[in-house]
Design a protein that fits this description.
The complex is a heterodimer of chains A (about 150) and B (about 350). Chain A contains five helices and six strands. By secondary structure, chain A is α+β, with helices and mostly antiparallel strands. Chain A has one domain: Outer Surface Protein A, domain 3 (Alpha-Beta Complex). In chain A, a hairpin with a 3-residue loop joins strand 2 and strand 3. Chain A starts with a helix and ends in a 21-residue tail after the last helix. Chain B is α+β, with helices and mostly antiparallel strands and about 350 residues long. Chain B folds into two domains: about 150 residues, no CATH class; about 140 residues, Phosphoenolpyruvate Carboxykinase, domain 3. Chain B is about 25% helix and about 30% strand. In chain B, the strands form three sheets. Chain B has a six-stranded mixed beta sheet, sandwiched between helices. In chain B, strand 7 and strand 8 form a beta hairpin. The chains are: A alpha+beta (about 150), B alpha+beta (about 350).
């Protein structure tokens, strides 16, 4: 059972400009270019993502899927999925006064529990050291690495 | 996306820095002949203006197959110089915090300008999108690493095609004039092995590492780089390649680099329609098998590495990758130890 009521009533937005996403037939793929972690969401997960990143509160997302014909257990499933999005730092509280945009997304029926697969196999590639030093001419100095 | 203001003590704005970089190119070119080379890339004309020949020697062999005789107005002009052979330096003026991890320079990537310092290649690249002109600078042309020689200016191509249905992608491509496959996957997945195995078949070759993919009006791949990179222990399969290696004295620390135009000019294709996406997976078993896969397989194979390698315009690039994947069937190529089966499976798929 999700624990935070605050999550349910708050508006969120995508946590970083480094996060990009695309929808496909059966799933959506979200990539965090800051960490190299990427995710696939099933259709229900993709719906929740679309709603929440557009500023719909988790509670409003629950209402929307229930009104669309999802079963009662969808309530907890939606909130749990929102909590995962927050834990994975894919969403963050939206600035005060942020208003939702219209997310055009149909609730997939029959309803299936929203799911998220997490892929970390590219993290090593993305694990770059910040640039700490520049040379006399002002250019970064760091040992060459093969890309 | 909005960026915080950056501190550049010397040239505080992108337009002033670009003007400075252009002036430094002019200074570099004042003591040496300007070497102008034209290339036709996906039906568009690229003009490279080199201050002297040192960088030309380093960067153009990989794109020599694209050389054009057109003297029309270029769609993009890139001015290239190095300090070691021209004496003209380029001062940066940013502190270390201005450089993002992938080299983008904070405050200097705007609607009009793209600016990056590519670590490893140690190359500065800045594009003025409005004037369709870029400046490329390295400290020493002699230090351009072999991998940069294998895919020169890939970030410039990425930015150039930002608003077009074209995208450099981390993929190989083999096929026939009427259609072929894009071979996708991160480094080490067998992408290059798969493409090179096809050199011993009737399949044509359009790249083993980076290609230019078009998603509209239909999926098509252009051969951007006429290069192949072979693991040194793979050279035994291609004994005839040795006289053509670009770096035979550095195989203890580099992959063997060869330019197809010299080695196998008849195998080089300008490009072809893409019929399928194929992601190799090395199995250790003897036989090679093609297995139908979902779109996610191809997206996972293509998107993270391409987006990582090519800074800027990530959303547009991901959208283009997605648009390509949505149009094509996806397969996993379970690569066995009998590499001769690889082209056989691909030819079966295409026919």
């Amino acid at each position: 059972m999700p624990s935070s009521k605050l999550i349910a009533t708050a508006r969120f937005s995508v946590a970083s400009p480094d996060i990009v996403w695309q929808a496909f037939d059966d799933e959506s793929v979200v990539i965090n270019l800051g960490s190299g972690t990427y995710y696939s969401f099933n259709l229900a997960g993709a719906l929740i993502w679309r709603l929440v990143e557009a500023g719909t509160t988790p509670a409003e997302a629950v209402e929307r899927v229930l009104q669309s014909g999802a079963p009662p257990e969808a309530r907890d499933q939606v909130l749990e999925f929102c909590e995962r999005l927050l834990q994975e730092a894919l969403i963050a509280p939206a600035p005060d006064g942020a208003q939702p945009t219209a997310a055009r997304a149909e609730t997939p029926l029959p309803w299936a529990q929203p799911s998220m697969s997490v892929y970390t196999d590219m993290e090593d590639l993305f694990l770059l050291d910040p640039i700490h030093e520049v040379d006399e001419a002002g250019w970064p100095s760091r040992p060459a690495e093969t890309p | 996306m909005a960026e915080p203001a950056s501190g550049n003590a010397l040239t505080p704005t992108p337009d002033k820095f670009f003007a400075q970089a252009r002036a430094r190119f002019a200074a570099a070119a004042s003591s040496l002949d300007v070497v102008e080379r034209r290339f036709r890339v996906a039906e568009r004309l690229l003009l490279l203006r080199f201050a002297g020949s040192a960088l030309e020697d380093r960067l153009t062999p990989a794109i020599e197959h694209l050389a054009a005789l057109d003297d029309g107005a270029p769609d993009l002009t890139v001015c290239l110089f190095d300090t070691a052979t021209t004496g003209a330096g380029l001062r940066a003026g940013w502190d270390a915090s201005a450089f993002r991890p992938r080299g983008e320079i904070v405050g200097f990537n705007t609607e009009r300008y793209r600016t990056v310092f590519q670590q490893g290649a140690d190359a500065f690249l800045m594009l003025d999108r409005e004037q369709r002109e870029a400046v490329y600078w390295v400290a020493d042309a002699g230090q351009v690493p072999y991998w940069e020689r294998s895919f020169p200016l890939r970030t410039a191509f990425h930015w150039w095609f930002e608003d077009l249905p074209l995208q450099p992608m981390h993929a190989a491509a083999v096929g026939f004039a009427e259609g072929g496959v894009l071979i996708t996957g991160p480094s080490g997945c067998g992408k290059s092995t798969t493409a090179l195995a096809c050199l011993n078949s009737e399949l044509l070759y359009a790249g083993d590492d980076y290609v230019l993919a078009q998603h509209a009006p239909g999926p098509h791949v252009y051969c951007l780089y006429g290069t192949a990179k072979l693991e040194p222990d793979n050279l035994g399969r291609f004994p005839a390649v040795r006289p053509f290696l670009d770096n035979p004295d550095r195989l203890d620390r580099e992959k063997a680099l060869v330019f197809l135009l010299a080695w196998m000019p008849g195998k080089l294709s300008a490009g072809f329609p893409i019929r399928a996406l194929v992601t190799p997976r090395i199995t250790g078993r003897r036989d090679t098998v093609l297995v139908r896969a979902g779109a996610l397989e191809a997206v996972r194979a293509l998107a993270p590495t391409t987006l990582y390698h090519l800074p800027g315009a990530e959303r547009k690039a991901f959208a283009k990758i997605a648009a390509l994947v949505r149009q094509l069937p996806c397969y996993v190529l379970e690569v066995g130890t009998d590499l001769a089966q690889i082209p056989v499976r691909i030819i079966e798929l295409l026919r």
